Structure formats: C-alpha cells, structure tokens
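Researcher: Sequence recovery benchmark, item below. Answer with residues only.
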C-alpha cells in the first residue's frame, strides 16, 4: 500500500519511530505487600510520651522575674487582691511534654525508641514516661538502658504475650528494596508510609553514626518508630530527617542496636570499640603515591591507643576488618564502632606496597583522650629554631610554588609570632598557597605547620626539601598541624 500511495520505505520507518515511548505493564499483581506489613506490624508500634518537670524561671506575660523586680521589687508582682504572689513550691516547676514512637521487641514488653525521645530537655526534677499501645491502653514505662551516642533507648512496660516485631539484618538490606515506616508523625497515630532504602552508611553527623537513608516519609513524631522490610522485620529505628530536603529520612541500622542490647538490658554504660586512627579517603592522589587502589588511609594515629599499640603506622592503608572489605572512612567507622571494647579484630593493611595482617585489641570510646591537652605556652620551645633564616620559593633546585603551588618558610621566633604558632610546633610553616592550586583544594592553608613528609618527620627547611626531592615529582604526603591545638591531618598534594 505504501508503494501504491507513493510513500517511500524511509517515510514508513520514520512514522514507526515517531510513536510515543510505552511500557508494557507486567506483574502488577506482584506489588509490594505494604498493606500486609502494616496490618501485622501496627500492633507492635507504640506512642511514647515523655513528661518532664523542670525548674522554671518565674515569668509574667512572657517576661522574666528580673524585668518585674525593677518595678515591684524583689518580692515579685502582686495578685489582684494586692497580695504578693508566693515563691517556691509548684509555682517554680514547669511541665514539659514531648515524645515520639517506639516498637515492642519482646513479648514481655521491651520497647526500642530513640534516646532523644526520652531525654529531658533541661535539668529536671523528675521524668515520667508513658507508653500507649495499639489497643489504646496506657502503660508506665521504665528506662532499662540508653545510649546517647547511638541515639537509642530501651524501655520496659509490664506485660506478657505482647505482639512484638522481629529484629532483622540491616547489613543484608539492599539499596533500592522496599521499606515501610510506622509511627506517630505530628500526633497522627499509627501512620504508615512506604518507600525504598535510598542509601546505606550515611555518616551525616560525624562520630560513630552510620545511618540508613530512606525516602519513606518521616516527620516529627516518627522518631523511635521502626523501619521495616517487606518481611515485617525491623531493619532500623527512625531517627531524623533532612529539614531542607523532601523525603530524606535516616534510621539507626538495627545491627548496631543488636550489638548493644545486652548492655542496654543491664543498664550498664555501653562499651563501644575504639581504634584510635584518623581515617581518610584513598583518593586519586593517595592511590598514585601509595600504589593502592582500594581501602582507607591512616592519616593520623592517637598515641597510646589501640591501633598504635598494635603497630599500625601513619600512611598504612586499611583494606579489610576481619576479612570484610573496607572502601571508605565511613565503612571503617561503622565496622569498628559496632564492636565492643576489648574485642580483638584483624586489620588487613598495605604498607610500602606489601600486605600484612595486624591484630588489634579495641579500646573503649569512653576513654578518648582530652583533645585540648595542656597549655601550649607551658611547653618547652627549645630546639625549634635550627638557625635557618628567611624563605624562598626555590630552594636546593626545587621550585615549590611552581611544582606544588605553595611556599614554606622555617619556624623562627619571628614566624612563630607572625603566624601565632604554639611553642611546641616543629617543622616548616606554610607561607603561601596559590588559590588556583590543588594544594588549596586539598585544604592546605597559610599558617599551617608541615610536621612530616611521608613517614619522615621534618625539623626544618633542610629536612623538608630533602624529602621533597626524594618524591621526584610524585604527590607529597604532608602531615600538617594547625598553629595551635591538637588537630592534624595528612594531605596528599599532587605535582602541578
């Protein structure tokens, strides 16, 4: 017919190509069983109400006492009968009410929720925690244990044969799988929302947190409620949202909770493992310099802590913990913080291109050293000034600014005063960083002190340039310290 109508083959082909894109719907009967999860798990979700009585400042019409003392004197304002209002007693106690959600995890009434749901907002005289179950009954709850660092608390109500949820395996959960959140957002009891697991291992606050991320809608009041897989197992405890985002919520992985349940039940402080390293991302520059493609760089160690005692060195690359591959600093933090203090772990590391295994007995995070340390002015400055004077862009055949984008100068009394350096600082001080250089992009700043190049400590310009020449145009691995305080980090600065 196309020939009879005088239509060419190419015209027919174009007509076929112009059809709109369509998708053949298959398997619509296999939609995720959200309704079944909601029906069976709703009875395990509870509302938690936290009533706290705190000492209050007396106010009148929203103004504090001091304002009225100016007009009425220290005895306070009068009531309509002309009598002074009495002070003390219940008038000096303020009632504050908060709460969230929780999930029953045992037949005898154990309930998981968030620490911040049951925490007192101010110094309190007393706190009452009540739990309302799905059948409308209200129960007085006691706190068995709590862990502020993980934002988890374990409550207990009196009961037997209560409907309860099973704790699943958050490590086995896969990004993209369907999840269900149940809670009491904005006072709307037993609200069910569904979505997918958007990401795992989100460290958004620093510290030990490594959250599950979901797009299942979570709002104020969902805190402490369960994040469930389609088998109805708890894989996370909903904790927070991104207020500036849309449906970006976070939950504490349940495997982290399971590891501390024994401590919570006993009421003892949680003994969480501590390695004592500063992990850094193994970026392209580190890969080029260290010859390792996957793992986490040990940017620094805490002297006398677990890793240091076990023989871990700065610039080691940690590739696995107990055989589990480590690909990012967040993964390392998550792996170690989920273990107990005193536990022995096996670190797989690469040092100078050679793999090795190290056994580390983990320390206790509660024993973290005081970062503030002593006063910098009290330390002995002797030996800092090696008699080197002045600074130069080019020294001993190395044009540092041209090759790496920054300049250094020796630490002398003058430079120490100019940059506000503490008395214990040794090495060389950064005098200039080109804003267009990768050194600036990596975070190198004027006034920082370079204490080591690679694994070699430097005492002055001579040591520094010796190590720069040894690099032979490869990236410089610089241990840099701030001018004062205890912060230090390893920066990998590539050749320009």
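Model:
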């Amino acid at each position: 017919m196309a020939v009879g109508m005088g239509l060419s083959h190419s015209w027919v082909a174009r007509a076929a190509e112009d059809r709109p894109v369509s998708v053949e719907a298959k398997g619509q009967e296999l939609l995720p069983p959200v309704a079944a999860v909601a029906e069976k798990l709703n009875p395990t979700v509870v509302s938690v109400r936290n009533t706290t009585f705190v000492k209050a400042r007396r106010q009148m019409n929203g103004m504090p006492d001091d304002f009225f003392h100016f007009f009425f004197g220290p005895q306070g304002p009068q009531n309509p009968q002309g009598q002074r209002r009495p002070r003390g007693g219940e008038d000096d106690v303020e009632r504050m009410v908060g709460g969230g959600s929780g999930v029953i995890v045992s037949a005898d009434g154990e309930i998981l929720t968030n620490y911040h749901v049951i925490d007192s907002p101010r110094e309190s005289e007393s706190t009452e925690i009540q739990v309302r179950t799905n059948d409308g009954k209200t129960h007085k709850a006691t706190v068995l244990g709590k862990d502020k660092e993980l934002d988890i608390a374990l409550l207990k109500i009196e009961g037997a044969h209560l409907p309860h949820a099973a704790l699943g395996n958050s490590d086995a959960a896969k990004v993209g799988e369907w999840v269900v959140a149940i809670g009491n957002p904005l006072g709307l009891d037993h609200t069910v929302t569904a979505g997918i697991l958007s990401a795992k291992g989100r460290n958004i606050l620093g510290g030990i947190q490594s959250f599950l991320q979901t797009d299942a809608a979570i709002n104020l009041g969902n805190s402490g409620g369960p994040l469930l897989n389609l088998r109805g197992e708890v894989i996370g405890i909903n904790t927070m949202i991104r207020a500036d985002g849309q449906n970006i919520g976070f939950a504490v992985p349940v495997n982290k909770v399971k590891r501390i349940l024994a401590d919570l039940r006993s009421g003892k402080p949680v003994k969480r493992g501590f390695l004592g390293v500063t992990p850094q991302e193994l970026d392209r520059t580190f890969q080029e310099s260290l010859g390792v493609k996957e793992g986490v760089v040990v940017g620094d160690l805490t002297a006398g802590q677990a890793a240091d005692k076990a023989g871990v060195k700065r610039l080691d690359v940690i590739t696995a913990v107990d055989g589990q591959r480590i690909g990012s600093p967040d993964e390392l933090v998550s792996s170690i913080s989920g273990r107990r203090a005193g536990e022995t772990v096996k670190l797989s590391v690469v040092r100078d291109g050679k793999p090795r295994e190290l056994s580390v007995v983990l320390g206790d995070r509660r024993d973290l050293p005081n970062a503030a340390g002593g006063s910098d002015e009290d330390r002995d400055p002797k030996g800092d000034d090696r008699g080197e004077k002045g600074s130069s862009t080019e020294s001993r055949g190395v044009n540092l600014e041209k090759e790496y984008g920054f300049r250094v100068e020796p630490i002398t009394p003058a430079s120490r005063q100019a940059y506000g350096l503490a008395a214990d600082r040794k090495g060389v001080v950064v005098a200039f960083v080109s804003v267009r250089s990768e050194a600036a992009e990596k975070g190198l700043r004027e006034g920082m002190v370079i204490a080591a190049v690679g694994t070699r400590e430097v005492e002055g310009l001579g040591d520094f340039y010796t190590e720069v020449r040894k690099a032979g145009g490869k990236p410089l691995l610089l241990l840099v310290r701030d001018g004062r305080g205890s912060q230090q980090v390893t920066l990998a600065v590539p050749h320009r």
